[in-house]
Amino acid sequence: MEREINKIVIIGSGNVATILAKKIQKNKHYTIVEIVARNIQTGKSLADEIHSLLCTDISKISQIADIYIVAVQDKTLPILANELNNYIPKDKIIVHTTGSASINILKNISSNIGVIYPLQSIKSSSSLYIEIPLFIDANNEKTKIQISDLANSISSKVDIANDEKRLKLHIAAVIVSNFSNYLFTLGEDFCKTENISFEYLLPLIEETVRRMQTTSPSIMQTGPAIRADQNTIDLHKRILKKENLSETLDVYSFLTEKIQQHFEK
Amino acid sequence: MEREINKIVIIGSGNVATILAKKIQKNKHYTIVEIVARNIQTGKSLADEIHSLLCTDISKISQIADIYIVAVQDKTLPILANELNNYIPKDKIIVHTTGSASINILKNISSNIGVIYPLQSIKSSSSLYIEIPLFIDANNEKTKIQISDLANSISSKVDIANDEKRLKLHIAAVIVSNFSNYLFTLGEDFCKTENISFEYLLPLIEETVRRMQTTSPSIMQTGPAIRADQNTIDLHKRILKKENLSETLDVYSFLTEKIQQHFEK
User: Fold this and answer.
1) CB contact under 8 A, B247 and A258
2) What interface predicted TM-score (ipTM) does this complex get?
């Protein structure tokens, strides 16, 4: 019989730490023994909310947990991993939660390391019911099973992903989420400039996304670019030029050309 | 007392014609006296569905309607407008449904012309409950009121938009819908290449869009570009290069730079 894990320490009190903590706390099988955070305000608030303790001094981190979840910003992770090396027992499971860092960033800390990467844009204010696909990895089978059990207890979509696959998932996420959010920003800016309520565009955006539940976006491409409707394209560009919206004009021209090349293939 | 309109002819049997016809038919105040369509198959199917008649010969178009709605593709509109000139009584209301054509394309047909532009990506298979903001225009006040009544009977979001405003709405629609759909297509292609299920990305995309109900996308921008996380950007680019995905690499580089310039401002 494998030893089961149940005591958890969460290091961090930001967006990912908060939502993971709240989701884990709902499952009676697991106990979050403490939140470790330098930020007393967010740390205290999170610890209180999930009825756990707060530790603000990393040298006093609890030694009794089975798994340590490091949910901090990408840039903080390397420094923190170095520090944790001194304070976590060498056989405990430790995981990080980022898409672009290697699992090996944790290798000096313990003999049981892993990753739980949430492929979602998470805010601490996110609903507890937000759907979060989790991609996990571990450096040995036993750890992988234990991490998988934990991941499955908080998400219905769990899959294995090594360093390379996580990096690729991250690229896909940047393309479909960060880049499209930028387009929504440009659209909103344009509406502001032209005194149009951006709200009018929301049903269209929602419909564009809703369709992907059943239909590949590649066969749903519409608009003047794919129709090769040069009159409309020229008319649009002329207006963007007239309004001195050079950034939007650049993006319009670039993506129109890319769409035409893509769908000509 | 203004003369009310109630008898309607719809010219076209494509996506927009179908959804407008179905929405109008639900309102007992209006009667669709016939569907005019060259395509016997889609025309017959639509006419049957809404319990109306089909006319396939434009020279025999019903003379008794109060309003004629021309819902055809942008490129067909100019030719059709020329033909209709001969067959529609000069005082009837006639409207078209496109964002980029001027209201004046109809000016030889009647003294009462207008536009009902649906700002939505419509398929004939769309649910009847799809939300469609309608932008209307007319060349005189009486016609505007009558078109407005009709528009309000099928949509809860109706606003006035002249030629220029419709063109601008169309630009905004292209940016937020056509361009983002292209990014979703690139994301899906990338997932296929890398043997990743695109389904895993859907919750992220939905969340990105869901937030715009309450929050401006400009303050929700995340990702390596806005964080100026050059390590991750270089890593991502290296993978795209290695996998020979030059189109995706081009788009990644271009939009990353644009995001950085935009949010530096």
Assistant:
1) yes
2) 0.94
